[in-house]
């Protein structure tokens, strides 16, 4: 028997042993792979636990920082509220001190001026005024202030018809222009930006300054023509010029020291129309004239003791001129000089009225006798001042 034959006879006997050895190698391989997989799963579990711990620590750290920030925000808000309370208290104390210690009197002791006023009174000016109404009120204080919005440039004028009966708002943007914006009501003027809800009135001549007035359906505005100034009476219904008149004053100068663009301030009160102006002849003080609203004639004229220096505006209430003063740079505006044409209210009996400090200085102040309030333009902001009134003879 050859060797190959012997090998063939032995193969059936060796096959189980070979298979068992292969299975053992396979099991060892599977065990090694499972062991490696278990090791990797253990490493992943350890890393996941570490990341979870770090994330939890970071979350706790962030929550702590948020709590600290919230506490700081509450502390800052409490400090801001406390500061606001202190500022309000300080303003009240300042108001009290200013009331108890009024500013120096606005009337300068000038013998030459006094002699001149006496001589003029003997001629035609400063005659006793015959009142047209029984109005005997004067301003006691500013009762409330309401800031409507910010519109237009730093200087301008906004007002209603001073005679009442209309809800329209008239806006004069700037100190030299020829277009008046008209809003149908206060709501449209307050809520809507720009001039989308406003009608436009194109005037035949441009205006100058901020001393214009809407009264009884007419616009009375100032036009400069060379060295002279005209008062133009413009009908707002049919958009035509009804009348015009050259103001009978020579060598006019700005009526208010802090408002160099305003040469004539047309004002209205319970008595009718007035014009506040100034001339080189008496350049230190403000002058007052009573206007006829129908013909624009000057009915009567007065030299007042109210100085132009540091004046920013004026208005008339029940026949008494109230001149408002400020400082450079702007501070708190105040009524510091009152001139009553009827002589009922003595200067020392007039209230020293202060306006709340807000933005800058008033470019215009228009009194509404129908509503007993002022329409003010302060550095582009439109403000309403509601006035507290008292009787002139009240002690």
From TrEMBL:
<comment type="similarity">
    <text>Belongs to the OLFML3 family.</text>
</comment>
<dbReference type="InterPro" id="IPR050605">
    <property type="entry name" value="Olfactomedin-like_domain"/>
</dbReference>
<feature type="coiled-coil region">
    <location>
        <begin position="20"/>
        <end position="100"/>
    </location>
</feature>
<dbReference type="InterPro" id="IPR003112">
    <property type="entry name" value="Olfac-like_dom"/>
</dbReference>
<keyword id="KW-0732">Signal</keyword>
<keyword id="KW-0217">Developmental protein</keyword>
<feature type="signal peptide">
    <location>
        <begin position="1"/>
        <end position="20"/>
    </location>
</feature>
<keyword id="KW-0964">Secreted</keyword>
<keyword id="KW-0325">Glycoprotein</keyword>
<protein>
    <submittedName>
        <fullName>OLFL3 protein</fullName>
    </submittedName>
</protein>
<dbReference type="GO" id="GO:0005615">
    <property type="term" value="C:extracellular space"/>
</dbReference>
<dbReference type="GO" id="GO:0007165">
    <property type="term" value="P:signal transduction"/>
</dbReference>
<feature type="domain" description="Olfactomedin-like">
    <location>
        <begin position="134"/>
        <end position="391"/>
    </location>
</feature>
<keyword id="KW-1015">Disulfide bond</keyword>
<dbReference type="Pfam" id="PF02191">
    <property type="entry name" value="OLF"/>
</dbReference>
<keyword id="KW-0175">Coiled coil</keyword>
């Amino acid at each position: 028997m050859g060797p190959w034959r012997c090998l063939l006879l032995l193969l059936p006997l060796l096959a189980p042993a070979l298979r068992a050895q292969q299975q053992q190698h396979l099991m060892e391989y599977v065990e090694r792979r499972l062991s490696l997989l278990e090791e990797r799963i253990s490493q992943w579990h350890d890393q996941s636990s570490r990341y979870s711990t770090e994330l939890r620590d970071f979350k706790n750290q962030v929550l702590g920082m948020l709590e600290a920030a919230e506490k700081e925000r509450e502390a800052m808000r409490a400090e801001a509220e406390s500061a606001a309370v202190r500022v309000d208290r300080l303003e009240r104390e300042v108001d009290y001190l200013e009331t108890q210690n009024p500013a120096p009197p606005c009337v300068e002791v000038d013998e030459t001026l006094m002699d001149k006023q006496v001589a003029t009174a003997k001629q035609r000016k400063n005659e006793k005024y015959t009142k047209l109404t029984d109005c005997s009120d004067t301003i006691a204080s500013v009762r409330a202030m309401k800031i409507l919005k910010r519109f237009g440039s730093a200087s301008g004028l906004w007002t209603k018809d001073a005679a009442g009966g209309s809800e329209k708002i008239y806006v004069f943007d700037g100190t030299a222009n020829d277009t008046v914006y008209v809003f149908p009501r206060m709501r449209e003027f307050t809520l809507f930006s720009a001039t989308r809800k406003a009608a436009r009135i194109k005037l035949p001549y441009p205006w100058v300054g901020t001393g214009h007035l809407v009264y009884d359906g007419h616009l009375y505005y100032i036009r400069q023509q060379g060295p002279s100034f005209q008062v133009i009476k413009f009908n707002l219904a049919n958009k035509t010029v009804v009348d015009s008149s050259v103001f009978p004053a020579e060598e006019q100068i700005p009526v208010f020291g802090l408002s160099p663009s305003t040469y004539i301030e047309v004002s209205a009160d319970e008595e009718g129309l007035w014009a506040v102006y100034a001339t080189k002849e008496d350049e230190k003080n403000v002058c007052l004239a009573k206007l006829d609203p129908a013909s624009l004639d000057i009915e009567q004229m007065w030299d007042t003791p109210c100085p132009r220096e540091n004046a920013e505006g004026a208005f008339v209430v029940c026949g008494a001129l109230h001149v408002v003063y400020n400082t450079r740079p702007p501070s708190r505006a105040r009524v510091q000089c009152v001139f009553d044409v009827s002589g009922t209210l003595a200067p020392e009996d007039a209230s020293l009225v202060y306006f709340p400090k807000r933005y800058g200085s008033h470019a215009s102040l228009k009194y509404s006798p129908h509503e007993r309030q002022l329409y003010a333009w302060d550095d582009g902001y439109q403000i309403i001042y509601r006035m507290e009134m008292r009787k002139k003879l009240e002690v």
